[in-house]
Amino acid sequence: MQYLTKLFYFCAAHLYGHEDWTAEKNTEVFGDDAKIHGHNYTLEVTVKGSINPETGFIVDLVELKKIVKNNILDIMDHSQIEKDIPWFKDKQPSTENMVVFIWEMIASKLIDCTLHRIRLIETPTIKTDYYGPDCC
Q: I need a surface site. Which of 21, 26, 31, 63 has the fewest CB within 10 A?
């Protein structure tokens, strides 16, 4: 079994909070993150599979880039996540929820390999990993 990780980049904004809470309670719970703010995200998509003896690769990188572009980057880049992406209705736009969204959007579209891990880097000190719904 081989593993390959491809990096992607996008920028997006979000805010944390609940519409039915007061501004004070949202600020108390979420601090400054209760205000709209943005991040320059690094997305790591790790796939696993066997090496194709004809190509020497486990994944067609052109196809992988197309899948991520069409299903993630075109949707998330320059969005306000909780406002622009219906999946996030009634969910906080946390990296914990974002990695689940990304997994659900691309896992079934991969050919000749399997999604192994989604890592989303929001800041130099916040990295969230997700190994799928069947992990652990």
A: 31
At CA 10, angle to CA 7 and CA 16, rounded to 5?
120
pTM, two decimals, is 0.95
For the chain, the structural domain boundaries read 2-130
Which class in CATH covers the domain with range 2-130? alpha beta
**Which residues, listed in sequence order, are joined to residue 41 by a DSSP beta bridge?**
10
SS3 75: helix
- Report the residue count for the chain: 136
Q: CA nearest 114: which of 42, 45, 44?
A: 45
- Residue 100, classed as helix, strand or coil, is helix
